[in-house]
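Chapter review: from sequence to fold.
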Amino acid sequence: MRKILVMLSSLVVVAGCGGSPPAPAPVPVQRPDRRPDQVRTPPPAAEVQESWHLTRRGAEHEIEGYADRVSVLPGERFGLRVSTTAPRFSARAFRMGANPVKVWESPAVQGVRQPPMRLVDGTVSAAHWRPSLTVDTAGWPEGAYLIRLDASTGAQRYVPITVRSASTAGRVVLVNAVTTWQAYNRWGGRSLYTGPRGYADRSRAVTFDRPYDDVGARLFLDFEKDALAVAEQSHVPLAYLTNLDLKPGVLDGARAVVSLGHDEYWSPGMRAVVTKARDAGTNLAFLGANAVYWRIAMHDRTLACDKERLCRLWRDSRPESTLVGQMYDCFPAEGAYRVTRPHHWIFAGTKGRRFPGMVGVESDKVSRGSPGNVQVLAESPYSCGGGRATHSDSTYYVAPSGAGVFASGTMRWVCALRGKRCGHGVSDRAAAFTRRATTNLLTRFAQGPAGAH
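The token string follows.
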């Protein structure tokens, strides 16, 4: 939907380092006669506490790149395709989470300015770029990673990659919503929302064979990073996947599945896998709003959604509320979050019942298709766009299998984990509230079907 473009353009401000990080060990410069596609990575270095932040974005195309795999198993390799105007660049891998840490860095690589993007049937692609670097993940722990590309001129960008879990049995599964990242990716001037002449000129399909826009990890930083940190601080057993990894059998034995802050684009296969898991007793948590909205098709590394004939809203056939417990209602949403069932176990140990700014920028509420036993834990009235009176709901229901399903009903739940740094009038009290509630949720869900306890 066009709605998020305005919001996203203002959400991310790249943070500088909070002090001077330790200087990395010198790395050898790649021999000039070595082609970039011949570069192989050294063994993983010991974990180093080095700042993962960007300190200088540089010019628009000074450095940028993408990975040829969205996720890999530990020990597998993936390729980086990098374009830069700098004479050299290097790459550093940071495992994100409660304590972001550098696990690897490359030698310096000869910089290459790759050819311009290609436009094929309205889809922007950089699949024709030559490989720059092959990365071996031997020794890397499972988790969500940012590869930071560092040009010799000082410019920097991120490339996200997930080292996925080989098994999810007995664990709480955190799912990166990479299809939503790609749907909103404006690199090359087109996304599923806009093109050179606006919405009518948008792409009807987008590919993972291109860099991400802005800093290179815009939606991960906005909607997922802080939830990963809280999950790791909870000390429950965790597994890591992207939503492209939601294939038959991958959730067998999982204790819970966590959809993070903005998880809008779901294929029938993704939904079938998560629904089957719920029906087998796997708990579900939706920490954002507007989840399971567009019914997409995946063709290898291409996401197809024309939003006209072939890609319709899930609610046109199977309302998302039958899975989530509620469905998307409003943009732009702006209001205070109001707890109505303070004694529910999810809110145990929290303080406060009203939190300004926590409802936004999209919100959900109980709607047709919501399970008959759904409980509204928080009901937050406000005016949608300053006009239509409506409300946002946080909901919980128990499936016949005993699985518990929570939905926050607001896209600012994860943002609120940052407290005042979220903006929008969100306070540090909201951070304490959401962190405790999220931890309660993960701790209970990690024990098995929540309705059985």
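Two observations follow directly from the output. The first helix runs from residue 3 to 8. The chain has two domains: 36-162, 172-452.
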